[in-house]
Design a protein that fits this description.
Elements (H helix, E strand, L loop, with lengths): L3 E12 L2 E13 L4 E5 L6 H8 L7 E6 L2 E2 L5 H11 E4 L11 H11 L4 H14 L15 H13 L5 E5 L7 H18 L2 E5 L3 H4 L4 E6 L2 E6 L1 H6 L2 H4 L11 E2 L5 E2 L14 H7 L4
Parallel strand pairs: 3-8, 3-9, 6-7, 7-8
Antiparallel strand pairs: 1-2, 1-4, 4-5, 9-10, 11-12
Helix pairs in contact: 3-4, 3-5, 4-5, 5-6
């Protein structure tokens, strides 16, 4: 069974400087319980591809199937229903509503779907338990760390029990240790809940957790491999001196992330990829 399939997917944007071919003739299949990582340099077309696979954007040509439904043939109303019922999205910027609690943020997709209150409460509690935040249900985003906020975002993405999870750079705003924990969580949910997931990242440490890795260059798939094989071919994955991602951005007095004020130095933060692996919790 295939949870997500794309055939000859092409997206072209027109500009005064000429056409930009963001994705070209992409074929892809993702199965339930499979974690597929898409990686490539900035501008390679990763976000465009994920938007197409998540039917947030329509292709210039080509088709996308979610399960046995050809999504690219649906009208906007049917597409919205399909996204609501069969797709979950995780965003780099978390996408949480600041005035709502963690539970209320997770609950939003079920409210939109008009799920019965009793079932809604049960699903929200289950989703927060799965991401390890059962004791933080009443806290607002500003009271949570970056890693906890992203876990709330993941809980919101899975609360409707989707077939497919789309995550665009879900660890891009996290430090290396937190990023590894979040990626482990996504992998565990994919394999235990039978979700088909497509995740974009450029971090070789996260690529190791993939079942399959797709390399994207100038909007084209240039290679596919298993996560372990892709990591072995990337010198940065095993280079002890390679730098890891920096710390999370600091928080201002109101608890909101501030990208303009440097975070205080963290003596416990790993300085190299080797240190990051050594400090990663055992599975």
């Amino acid at each position: 069974m295939t949870a997500l399939r794309a055939e000859k997917l092409t997206r072209t944007f027109s500009s005064s400087a000429g056409d930009v071919h963001a994705c070209v003739d992409i074929d892809i299949e993702v199965h339930p319980g499979e974690l597929v990582v898409v990686r490539g340099a900035s501008g390679a077309g990763k976000t465009t591809l994920l938007n197409l696979l998540g039917v947030l954007d329509r292709p210039t040509s080509g088709r996308v199937w979610i399960g046995d439904v050809e999504a690219t043939s649906l009208d906007e109303e049917a597409l919205a229903r399909l996204r609501r019922e069969q797709l979950g999205f995780v965003f780099q910027s978390f996408g949480l509503i600041p005035v709502l609690s963690a539970a209320e943020n997770v609950e939003l997709p079920l409210r939109i779907a008009r799920t019965a209150p009793a079932e809604r409460d049960e699903r929200v509690a289950e989703a927060l338990r799965l991401v390890g935040l059962a004791d933080h249900a009443a806290q607002r985003p500003g009271e949570l760390s970056g890693g906890q906020q992203q876990r709330v975002g993941i809980a919101r993405a899975i609360v409707a029990r989707p077939q497919v999870l789309i995550a665009d750079e879900p660890t891009g705003q996290l430090d290396s240790r937190t990023a590894a924990t979040v990626m482990d969580l996504i992998g565990e949910l994919v394999h235990t809940q039978g979700i088909a997931a497509v995740v974009s990242t450029h971090d070789p440490l996260l690529v190791q957790r993939a079942d399959r890795v797709i390399e994207l260059h100038d909007g084209r798939i240039t290679s596919e491999s298993t996560g372990a094989a892709a990591s072995a071919s990337d010198p940065a994955a095993d280079d002890p001196s390679a730098p890891v991602a920096g710390p999370e951005v600091s928080r201002d007095g109101e608890g909101a992330a501030s990208a303009f004020e440097p975070a205080p130095a963290d003596p416990d933060r790993p300085r190299t990829r080797a240190e990051a692996r050594a400090q990663r919790p055992a599975p």
